[in-house]
Design brief:
This protein is mainly alpha-helical and 70 residues long. The protein has a domain of 38 residues. The protein contains three helices and two strands; from the N terminus they run ααββα. The protein has a two-stranded antiparallel sheet. The longest helix is centred in the N-terminal third of the chain and has 18 residues. GO terms for molecular function: zinc ion binding. It holds the Pfam family zf-met. InterPro entries: MBS1/2-like (IPR045230), SERF-like_N (IPR007513), ZNF706/At2g23090_sf (IPR026939), Znf_C2H2_type (IPR013087). One of its GO terms (cellular component) is cytoplasm. Keywords: Cytoplasm, Metal-binding, Nucleus, Zinc, Zinc-finger.
Length: 70
């Protein structure tokens, strides 16, 4: 690996800082995109229909989970 000096070093540091900052995103935004299904009883958000079925069986055992079309 070559050693960089002066201006090259500063430019490389700036470039790396920008690269690292762009890759970081809001976890809230990523979570909102991933969680698309909502429980109609307790309003918890789930990622898919299988999780919804598991949620109903453990949290609302007396209730029937909604159909896949909803």
């Amino acid at each position: 690996m070559e050693m960089t000096r002066g201006k090259q070093k500063i430019e490389a540091q700036k470039k790396n800082a920008e690269k690292n900052q762009k890759s970081k995103g809001s976890q809230f935004e990523a979570r909102a995109v991933a969680l698309k299904i909502t429980c109609s009883i307790c309003k918890v958000q789930l990622a898919n229909q299988n999780q919804l079925g598991d949620h109903y069986s453990s949290k609302h055992p007396k209730e029937k989970p909604p159909n896949d079309s909803s």
